[in-house]
Automatic annotation (TrEMBL), chain A:
Its EC number is 1.2.4.1. Keywords: Lipoyl, Oxidoreductase, Pyruvate, Thiamine pyrophosphate. Its cofactor is (R)-lipoate; thiamine diphosphate. Gene3D superfamilies: 2.40.50.100, 3.40.50.920, 3.40.50.970. The pyruvate dehydrogenase complex catalyzes the overall conversion of pyruvate to acetyl-CoA and CO2. It catalyses: N(6)-[(R)-lipoyl]-L-lysyl-[protein] + pyruvate + H(+) = N(6)-[(R)-S(8)-acetyldihydrolipoyl]-L-lysyl-[protein] + CO2. Heterodimer of an alpha and a beta chain. GO terms for biological process: pyruvate decarboxylation to acetyl-CoA. GO terms for molecular function: pyruvate dehydrogenase (acetyl-transferring) activity. It comes from Rhodobacter aestuarii. Residues 2-78 form the Lipoyl-binding domain. NCBIfam families: PRK09212.1, PRK11892.1. This is Pyruvate dehydrogenase E1 component subunit beta.
Automatic annotation (TrEMBL), chain B:
Its cofactor is thiamine diphosphate. One of its GO terms (molecular function) is pyruvate dehydrogenase (acetyl-transferring) activity. Residues 28-324 form the Dehydrogenase E1 component domain. This is Pyruvate dehydrogenase E1 component subunit alpha. It holds the Pfam family E1_dh. The lineage of its organism: Bacteria, Pseudomonadati, Pseudomonadota, Alphaproteobacteria, Rhodobacterales. Keywords: Oxidoreductase, Pyruvate, Thiamine pyrophosphate.
Amino acid sequence: MATEVLMPALSPTMEEGTLAKWLVKEGDTVTSGQIIAEIETDKATMEFEAVDEGTVGKLLVAEGASGVKVNTPIMVLVEEGESADALPAAKAEAAPAPQADTPAPASAPAQAAAPVEIVSKASADWPEGTEMKTMSVREALREAMAEEMRADETVFLMGEEVGEYQGAYKVSQGLLDEFGAKRVLDTPITEHGFTGIGVGAAFGGLRPIVEFMTFNFAMQAMDQIINSAAKTLYMSGGQMGCPIVFRGANGAAARVAAQHSQDYAAWFAQIPGMRVVMPYSAADAKGLLKTAIRDPNPVIFLENEILYGRSFEVPVLDDFTIPFGKARIWREGTDVTLVSFGIGMAHALAAADKLAEEGISAEVIDLRTLRPIDYDTVLASVMKTNRCVTVEEGWPVASIGNHLSAVIMERAFDYLDAPVINCTGKDVPMPYAANLEKLALVTSDEVVAAAKRVCYR
Amino acid sequence: MATRKTPETPAPKRPNVSKEELLQYYRDMLLIRRFEEKAGQLYGMGLIGGFCHLYIGQEAVVVGLEAAAKEGDKRITSYRDHGHMLACGMDPKGVMAELTGREGGLSKGKGGSMHMFSKEKHFYGGHGIVGAQVPLGAGLAFADKYLGNDNVTFAYFGDGAANQGQVYETFNMAALWKLPVIFVIENNQYAMGTAQKRSTSTPDIYTRGAAFGIPGEVVDGMDVLAVKAASEKAVAHCRAGDGPYILEVKTYRYRGHSMSDPAKYRSREEVQKMRDERDAIENVRELLLSGGHATDDDLKSIDREIKAVVNDSAEFAKTSPEPALDELWTDITA
Ligand SMILES: Cc1ncc(C[n+]2csc(CCOP(=O)(O)OP(=O)(O)O)c2C)c(N)n1
Ligand SMILES: [Mg+2]
């Protein structure tokens, strides 16, 4: 019987890919385990092995085709003497999972209000009229590192798989080629050890960039980050600082479960002596990483695996940096202030779109850095809108949103027309099951509901 | 006790093994292989998500070690755990349904591929953080010693994990307190894309126990009988109250580190050579046939049985419902 071979999922976050190369042609016999195609994901080019045996009846997707969705039929395998047309109309086997009851989404108001106009605020981070190019967050981070490494011999990168493997998430791709093994070091899996070596090297006059494959593994190194890196300037009476960047993917990716899905923003933001950065856009990723590498303090730079592949406009400037402690207003609005950072921004912006359709004008602020925090921008906005919702992926207890609420209460209490609501991840370890994971994460619908609540709508 | 080193090419000292045992090892290894192949397929279809680390190639390690275990013994390992679970008798359906994140999974769908447990089979996980299971394993052994029984714990970890600092902190305490733990280093020669020689200052990991007075040896992990013999020796040492033991089992993974590993750090020829020349399942197959313990037909019928078990597990894993939504809020605190 003829079988369809489907576009495979080749990584946790892959939704589509490019069929880079067919290694078989129609009429070829295929054995199980044989490599039949090369498929490009956003991270890498992967070899795709056949699982069934048969003869290639038909290639359904042309070589070079991009944007091929996972589970699309890409080839028909037939048995000896069978024609490709013998394919039954059978559907792809990946049936959706039987669903548990899903709560109905909050229903729209009976009378839809007139949509509001969306005012995008021009960023003051670069001069009006600057030439722009589209770039993924991954590329932006790589450019920032490469530019700073070119400019300063003391900057070097160390971490697991950053060199020969080209980075577990391909952020450091090409850096080994350009800068050599002296400046791009593959470490053993010894986070506590290499973090300590990095901190010592910073004491000794270098500017290390320490990559954690993901921040979940920085937990192994927590003591060196906090007790050694963050406190030494103070303990030495200002003699000895620690110019080091700790960077890597933070937060949930897709289905990697409790030990690999955690947002550490609020944890690190609590530590005096440190800078904490969590960019959303590619321009911010680039400009802030350059600032981080030049900063004389230890900087925690929290990236996000899902954002690595997203593209944004980045200014084409020789030396483009973004200062710490300066929030970005993504959208101006008058009814409610949405404050977020990192991937939370994706939910905040999506919520603002939905709110606009319902006649609610949301101002959206990206904090970008969590230590220092740009309180003034948030307070000015809240004084204007009188309402605030915070959005973050992390847990609700002792969250960044909790902290902002306290500051707003202290400094703008009289301006508030409603209590501040914190939209956060749920107060549970991250479950693996697809339906539960979806529930555990903060969503734009929850942000919309919260915004309506503070607007009494 | 001094560290012993077996010669580079150990004489094939076959332990006495019955036909039934040999057939059992064949079955157990084949189950793991077929199960993993199926898991790989389900991953490609999007039915399994996240990280999924296959054990294909390493089957003889866990099957050989389990051959010396008795009821009550404990085991703990990393995220590359499907083989360990099958080898200690956990239900393939429950494992596969956990991979698909369904209610019928061993962790009700909440743990996934890397995090599964079975109190009944004394399987303590399934750990996603490289090296973390090593002190945990010593802790399990601590509990057994404290409680005064003769159980031992198998603590499995990789060549990459062998560099984590907590491994050596554990070696020290395990030796100091004579804990009944067998440290099984599954040396498949790579930690993700890092070949052992690029991460490890000396080639023989098992010798590192010497600094702590822990005996150790290297074992051919592509030979299930050699693994079994080493396991028996280590288990006897631990049960006798002589403290920990290290087995560095040389093995090889045929697939990428996880499903999303393009595996550009080694050649296809290297992988193919291992498959062709050293495959543990093929080795036992040949022993069975050449020793007249089984006919081709016997083995074919075993193949069919295993295939049916695996297909059933996949069917179960596809049809078991997703967990109920209120499961999100259960099991957080006891
Ligand atoms: C503390 C920590 N650091 C990094 C990782 C990412 N990681 C997962 S598996 C792995 C390689 C481990 O290799 P090895 O110990 O040899 O085991 P194998 O995968 O070969 O079985 C790495 C770096 C992790 N899970 N935990
Ligand atoms: Mg390994």
